[in-house]
Write a structure and sequence with these properties.
342 residues; mainly beta; Elongation Factor Tu (Ef-tu), domain 3; Jelly Rolls; 2 domains; 6-stranded antiparallel beta sheet; 1 helix; 40% strand; globular
Amino acid sequence: MPLLSGGLVVITAVQESAGAAVATYHEITGTSAFTWIDPDGREWPLSNTSEDLGWFTLTGPSGWSAAPIEITSDSLPRGGESVRAISSKPATIQWPLEVFGADHEQFIGRYREISKAFKLTTVRRRPGVLRVQRPGGSVRQIEAFYSDGLAGEAEQNYLFARPVISLFCPDGKWREPEPIVAARTFTPTTGGDSAPVTFYGPFISLASSNVVGVPGGDGEASNDDDSGSLTTITNPGDVEAWPVWTVTGPMTQLRAWNETLGSRFALTYTLGAEQTITITTERPTVRGPGDANLSGAIDWFNTAGTELWPLADGENVVGLEVDGAEATTSVQMAFTPRYDNS
Protein backbone atom coordinates (compact mmCIF):
# COMPACT_ATOMS: atom_id res chain seq x y z
CA MET A 1 0.00 0.00 0.00
CA PRO A 2 1.53 3.36 -0.95
CA LEU A 3 2.18 5.72 1.93
CA LEU A 4 0.19 8.88 2.29
CA SER A 5 1.89 12.23 1.88
CA GLY A 6 1.10 14.75 4.59
CA GLY A 7 2.18 18.14 5.81
CA LEU A 8 1.52 20.95 8.25
CA VAL A 9 -1.47 23.21 7.65
CA VAL A 10 -4.04 24.85 9.90
CA ILE A 11 -7.68 23.90 9.54
CA THR A 12 -10.75 24.62 11.59
CA ALA A 13 -12.29 21.93 13.72
CA VAL A 14 -15.04 19.75 12.29
CA GLN A 15 -18.33 21.67 12.33
CA GLU A 16 -19.96 19.30 14.79
CA SER A 17 -16.98 19.49 17.17
CA ALA A 18 -16.91 22.00 19.98
CA GLY A 19 -13.67 23.84 20.61
CA ALA A 20 -11.13 26.06 18.91
CA ALA A 21 -9.36 25.52 15.61
CA VAL A 22 -6.67 22.84 15.64
CA ALA A 23 -3.51 22.33 13.65
CA THR A 24 -3.09 19.08 11.76
CA TYR A 25 -0.63 17.29 9.57
CA HIS A 26 -2.50 17.44 6.28
CA GLU A 27 -2.29 15.29 3.17
CA ILE A 28 -0.33 17.49 0.77
CA THR A 29 2.32 16.32 -1.68
CA GLY A 30 5.84 17.27 -0.57
CA THR A 31 5.31 16.97 3.18
CA SER A 32 5.65 14.23 5.79
CA ALA A 33 3.19 11.37 6.16
CA PHE A 34 2.53 9.06 9.11
CA THR A 35 1.24 5.49 9.26
CA TRP A 36 0.53 3.05 12.07
CA ILE A 37 0.99 -0.65 11.24
CA ASP A 38 -0.73 -2.92 13.76
CA PRO A 39 0.74 -6.30 14.85
CA ASP A 40 -1.40 -8.08 12.25
CA GLY A 41 0.20 -6.02 9.46
CA ARG A 42 -2.75 -3.73 8.63
CA GLU A 43 -1.78 -0.15 7.79
CA TRP A 44 -3.65 2.79 9.34
CA PRO A 45 -2.96 6.22 7.76
CA LEU A 46 -2.59 8.93 10.41
CA SER A 47 -2.09 12.06 8.27
CA ASN A 48 -5.17 11.87 6.05
CA THR A 49 -7.81 14.47 7.04
CA SER A 50 -10.51 13.01 4.79
CA GLU A 51 -13.93 12.93 6.41
CA ASP A 52 -14.25 9.40 5.04
CA LEU A 53 -11.40 8.27 7.29
CA GLY A 54 -12.35 10.05 10.50
CA TRP A 55 -9.04 10.71 12.26
CA PHE A 56 -5.78 12.59 11.70
CA THR A 57 -2.60 13.62 13.49
CA LEU A 58 -2.57 16.96 15.28
CA THR A 59 0.58 19.02 15.55
CA GLY A 60 2.75 18.41 18.56
CA PRO A 61 3.95 14.78 18.57
CA SER A 62 6.76 14.52 21.09
CA GLY A 63 9.49 12.05 21.98
CA TRP A 64 10.10 10.96 18.39
CA SER A 65 13.69 12.13 18.18
CA ALA A 66 16.71 10.69 20.02
CA ALA A 67 15.94 8.30 22.87
CA PRO A 68 17.20 9.17 26.37
CA ILE A 69 20.66 8.03 27.46
CA GLU A 70 21.59 6.53 30.82
CA ILE A 71 25.13 7.20 32.08
CA THR A 72 26.49 5.10 34.93
CA SER A 73 29.40 6.71 36.76
CA ASP A 74 31.60 6.13 39.78
CA SER A 75 32.86 8.77 42.21
CA LEU A 76 36.60 9.39 42.20
CA PRO A 77 38.54 9.79 45.47
CA ARG A 78 39.93 13.17 44.41
CA GLY A 79 36.61 14.49 43.17
CA GLY A 80 34.60 14.17 40.04
CA GLU A 81 33.34 10.95 38.49
CA SER A 82 34.43 8.45 35.87
CA VAL A 83 31.95 7.11 33.33
CA ARG A 84 31.56 3.34 33.66
CA ALA A 85 28.78 2.66 31.17
CA ILE A 86 26.60 4.46 28.65
CA SER A 87 23.39 2.88 27.42
CA SER A 88 20.43 3.92 25.32
CA LYS A 89 17.04 3.75 27.02
CA PRO A 90 13.61 2.94 25.58
CA ALA A 91 11.67 5.85 24.08
CA THR A 92 8.13 7.04 24.85
CA ILE A 93 6.35 8.83 22.01
CA GLN A 94 3.28 11.02 22.58
CA TRP A 95 1.11 11.00 19.44
CA PRO A 96 -1.92 13.37 19.38
CA LEU A 97 -4.91 12.45 17.21
CA GLU A 98 -8.30 13.93 16.48
CA VAL A 99 -11.12 11.44 15.92
CA PHE A 100 -14.47 12.75 14.68
CA GLY A 101 -17.80 11.75 13.19
CA ALA A 102 -20.89 13.31 11.62
CA ASP A 103 -23.02 11.78 14.39
CA HIS A 104 -22.40 9.91 17.61
CA GLU A 105 -22.69 6.43 16.12
CA GLN A 106 -20.19 7.23 13.37
CA PHE A 107 -17.78 8.78 15.86
CA ILE A 108 -17.99 5.82 18.24
CA GLY A 109 -17.39 3.37 15.37
CA ARG A 110 -14.30 5.25 14.25
CA TYR A 111 -12.97 5.67 17.79
CA ARG A 112 -13.35 1.98 18.49
CA GLU A 113 -11.64 1.11 15.22
CA ILE A 114 -8.52 3.25 15.68
CA SER A 115 -8.35 2.35 19.39
CA LYS A 116 -8.29 -1.35 18.54
CA ALA A 117 -5.51 -0.74 16.00
CA PHE A 118 -3.24 0.57 18.77
CA LYS A 119 -4.45 -1.67 21.62
CA LEU A 120 -3.90 -4.77 19.48
CA THR A 121 -0.27 -4.63 20.62
CA THR A 122 -1.40 -5.60 24.12
CA VAL A 123 -3.69 -8.36 22.85
CA ARG A 124 -1.09 -9.90 20.52
CA ARG A 125 1.82 -9.09 22.85
CA ARG A 126 3.72 -7.96 19.78
CA PRO A 127 4.69 -4.41 18.79
CA GLY A 128 3.13 -2.35 16.06
CA VAL A 129 5.16 -0.02 13.85
CA LEU A 130 4.98 3.77 13.61
CA ARG A 131 6.20 4.81 10.15
CA VAL A 132 7.28 8.28 9.03
CA GLN A 133 7.79 9.17 5.37
CA ARG A 134 9.66 12.42 4.71
CA PRO A 135 9.10 14.72 1.71
CA GLY A 136 12.27 13.47 0.01
CA GLY A 137 10.96 9.90 0.07
CA SER A 138 13.02 8.55 2.98
CA VAL A 139 11.12 6.26 5.33
CA ARG A 140 11.95 5.37 8.92
CA GLN A 141 9.94 3.39 11.42
CA ILE A 142 10.00 2.32 15.03
CA GLU A 143 8.46 -0.62 16.88
CA ALA A 144 6.05 0.43 19.62
CA PHE A 145 3.47 -0.81 22.13
CA TYR A 146 0.38 1.17 23.12
CA SER A 147 0.62 2.14 26.80
CA ASP A 148 -1.89 4.94 27.50
CA GLY A 149 -4.05 7.76 26.15
CA LEU A 150 -7.33 6.22 25.01
CA ALA A 151 -9.22 6.43 28.31
CA GLY A 152 -11.30 9.45 27.22
CA GLU A 153 -11.33 13.09 28.31
CA ALA A 154 -14.06 15.25 29.84
CA GLU A 155 -16.32 17.13 27.39
CA GLN A 156 -15.26 14.85 24.54
CA ASN A 157 -16.31 11.46 23.15
CA TYR A 158 -19.68 12.49 21.70
CA LEU A 159 -18.82 13.83 18.22
CA PHE A 160 -15.04 14.12 18.58
CA ALA A 161 -12.08 13.25 20.79
CA ARG A 162 -8.43 14.34 20.90
CA PRO A 163 -6.53 11.51 22.56
CA VAL A 164 -2.77 11.76 23.04
CA ILE A 165 -1.56 8.20 22.56
CA SER A 166 1.51 7.06 24.49
CA LEU A 167 3.68 4.57 22.63
CA PHE A 168 6.39 2.61 24.42
CA CYS A 169 9.33 1.88 22.10
CA PRO A 170 11.60 -0.78 23.67
CA ASP A 171 14.55 -0.36 21.31
CA GLY A 172 14.34 3.43 21.22
CA LYS A 173 15.85 3.50 17.71
CA TRP A 174 14.29 4.16 14.32
CA ARG A 175 14.96 1.81 11.43
CA GLU A 176 14.70 1.67 7.69
CA PRO A 177 11.73 -0.40 6.54
CA GLU A 178 13.77 -2.91 4.53
CA PRO A 179 17.07 -4.65 5.36
CA ILE A 180 20.24 -4.40 3.32
CA VAL A 181 21.22 -7.85 2.08
CA ALA A 182 24.75 -9.00 1.26
CA ALA A 183 25.26 -12.48 -0.15
CA ARG A 184 28.03 -14.84 -1.19
CA THR A 185 27.83 -17.95 -3.36
CA PHE A 186 30.32 -20.75 -3.85
CA THR A 187 33.50 -20.30 -5.89
CA PRO A 188 36.33 -22.80 -5.30
CA THR A 189 39.79 -21.54 -4.41
CA THR A 190 43.08 -22.94 -5.65
CA GLY A 191 45.22 -25.10 -3.43
CA GLY A 192 43.53 -28.49 -3.57
CA ASP A 193 40.43 -30.01 -2.08
CA SER A 194 41.51 -29.25 1.49
CA ALA A 195 41.78 -25.48 0.91
CA PRO A 196 39.14 -23.28 2.53
CA VAL A 197 36.56 -21.66 0.29
CA THR A 198 36.21 -17.91 -0.14
CA PHE A 199 33.09 -16.23 -1.39
CA TYR A 200 33.37 -14.05 -4.46
CA GLY A 201 30.82 -11.57 -5.85
CA PRO A 202 29.92 -8.18 -4.45
CA PHE A 203 28.81 -7.32 -0.96
CA ILE A 204 26.21 -4.67 -1.81
CA SER A 205 27.82 -2.62 -4.60
CA LEU A 206 31.45 -3.75 -4.68
CA ALA A 207 33.10 -4.90 -7.89
CA SER A 208 33.25 -8.64 -8.51
CA SER A 209 37.03 -8.62 -8.06
CA ASN A 210 36.58 -8.02 -4.31
CA VAL A 211 36.56 -11.20 -2.28
CA VAL A 212 35.98 -12.12 1.30
CA GLY A 213 39.34 -13.00 2.84
CA VAL A 214 40.84 -16.15 4.24
CA PRO A 215 41.61 -15.86 7.96
CA GLY A 216 43.87 -17.99 10.06
CA GLY A 217 42.62 -21.09 11.80
CA ASP A 218 41.51 -19.17 14.90
CA GLY A 219 39.25 -16.90 12.87
CA GLU A 220 41.63 -13.93 12.75
CA ALA A 221 43.26 -12.65 9.56
CA SER A 222 46.62 -14.25 8.93
CA ASN A 223 49.72 -12.11 8.48
CA ASP A 224 50.20 -13.06 4.85
CA ASP A 225 46.58 -12.43 3.91
CA ASP A 226 46.06 -9.88 1.14
CA SER A 227 44.22 -6.85 2.56
CA GLY A 228 42.41 -6.52 -0.77
CA SER A 229 40.60 -9.79 -0.02
CA LEU A 230 38.55 -8.11 2.70
CA THR A 231 35.26 -6.41 1.99
CA THR A 232 34.12 -3.02 3.28
CA ILE A 233 30.47 -2.99 4.36
CA THR A 234 28.91 0.43 4.96
CA ASN A 235 26.24 0.76 7.61
CA PRO A 236 24.46 4.05 6.80
CA GLY A 237 22.80 4.24 10.22
CA ASP A 238 23.69 6.40 13.22
CA VAL A 239 24.30 3.44 15.52
CA GLU A 240 25.27 -0.22 15.31
CA ALA A 241 23.19 -2.64 13.22
CA TRP A 242 22.75 -6.29 14.14
CA PRO A 243 22.96 -8.68 11.18
CA VAL A 244 21.14 -11.95 10.61
CA TRP A 245 23.23 -14.61 8.88
CA THR A 246 21.72 -17.36 6.73
CA VAL A 247 24.10 -20.16 5.77
CA THR A 248 23.06 -22.75 3.18
CA GLY A 249 25.02 -25.99 3.03
CA PRO A 250 26.92 -28.01 2.55
CA MET A 251 29.54 -26.81 5.02
CA THR A 252 31.48 -27.97 8.05
CA GLN A 253 32.59 -24.63 9.52
CA LEU A 254 31.84 -20.92 9.09
CA ARG A 255 34.28 -18.24 10.29
CA ALA A 256 33.28 -14.57 10.24
CA TRP A 257 35.10 -11.53 11.57
CA ASN A 258 34.84 -7.74 11.69
CA GLU A 259 38.29 -6.15 11.61
CA THR A 260 36.87 -2.70 12.36
CA LEU A 261 35.54 -3.88 15.73
CA GLY A 262 38.19 -6.55 16.36
CA SER A 263 35.43 -9.16 16.79
CA ARG A 264 35.01 -12.67 15.41
CA PHE A 265 33.06 -15.90 15.76
CA ALA A 266 33.08 -19.37 14.26
CA LEU A 267 30.38 -22.00 13.93
CA THR A 268 31.26 -25.69 13.51
CA TYR A 269 28.47 -27.92 12.23
CA THR A 270 28.13 -30.45 9.40
CA LEU A 271 25.38 -28.97 7.25
CA GLY A 272 23.95 -30.94 4.34
CA ALA A 273 23.21 -29.62 0.87
CA GLU A 274 20.27 -27.17 0.84
CA GLN A 275 20.04 -27.23 4.64
CA THR A 276 20.24 -23.85 6.39
CA ILE A 277 21.41 -22.33 9.65
CA THR A 278 20.19 -18.89 10.78
CA ILE A 279 22.39 -16.88 13.14
CA THR A 280 20.62 -13.94 14.79
CA THR A 281 23.03 -11.57 16.51
CA GLU A 282 20.44 -9.63 18.56
CA ARG A 283 19.05 -11.34 20.57
CA PRO A 284 21.64 -14.09 20.00
CA THR A 285 20.12 -17.30 18.64
CA VAL A 286 21.36 -20.03 16.30
CA ARG A 287 18.73 -22.21 14.65
CA GLY A 288 19.50 -25.14 12.36
CA PRO A 289 17.60 -27.75 10.36
CA GLY A 290 14.28 -28.62 11.94
CA ASP A 291 14.57 -25.44 14.05
CA ALA A 292 17.19 -27.16 16.20
CA ASN A 293 18.99 -24.98 18.75
CA LEU A 294 22.61 -24.87 17.61
CA SER A 295 23.92 -22.22 20.00
CA GLY A 296 26.43 -24.77 21.27
CA ALA A 297 28.01 -24.94 17.80
CA ILE A 298 29.47 -21.43 18.30
CA ASP A 299 33.04 -21.42 19.68
CA TRP A 300 32.13 -19.36 22.75
CA PHE A 301 35.31 -20.33 24.62
CA ASN A 302 37.81 -19.53 21.87
CA THR A 303 40.86 -17.78 23.38
CA ALA A 304 40.69 -15.18 20.60
CA GLY A 305 37.30 -14.08 21.96
CA THR A 306 33.88 -14.72 20.48
CA GLU A 307 31.06 -12.28 19.75
CA LEU A 308 28.07 -12.43 17.43
CA TRP A 309 29.19 -8.99 16.35
CA PRO A 310 27.25 -6.00 15.06
CA LEU A 311 28.13 -3.62 12.25
CA ALA A 312 29.38 -0.28 13.55
CA ASP A 313 27.99 2.88 12.02
CA GLY A 314 29.96 3.78 8.89
CA GLU A 315 32.47 1.47 7.21
CA ASN A 316 33.21 -2.05 8.48
CA VAL A 317 35.99 -4.27 7.13
CA VAL A 318 34.45 -7.74 7.10
CA GLY A 319 35.71 -11.19 6.14
CA LEU A 320 34.38 -14.73 6.16
CA GLU A 321 35.22 -18.24 4.99
CA VAL A 322 33.54 -21.62 4.87
CA ASP A 323 35.04 -25.11 5.03
CA GLY A 324 33.39 -28.04 3.28
CA ALA A 325 31.57 -25.88 0.71
CA GLU A 326 30.19 -27.18 -2.57
CA ALA A 327 28.10 -25.84 -5.46
CA THR A 328 24.98 -25.05 -3.43
CA THR A 329 26.78 -23.35 -0.53
CA SER A 330 25.91 -19.72 0.13
CA VAL A 331 26.15 -17.17 2.94
CA GLN A 332 23.78 -14.23 3.31
CA MET A 333 24.02 -11.36 5.78
CA ALA A 334 21.03 -9.02 6.21
CA PHE A 335 21.00 -5.96 8.44
CA THR A 336 18.62 -3.08 9.02
CA PRO A 337 20.19 0.38 9.54
CA ARG A 338 19.15 2.05 12.81
CA TYR A 339 18.91 5.77 13.62
CA ASP A 340 18.53 8.06 16.62
CA ASN A 341 15.96 10.25 14.86
CA SER A 342 12.87 9.70 12.75
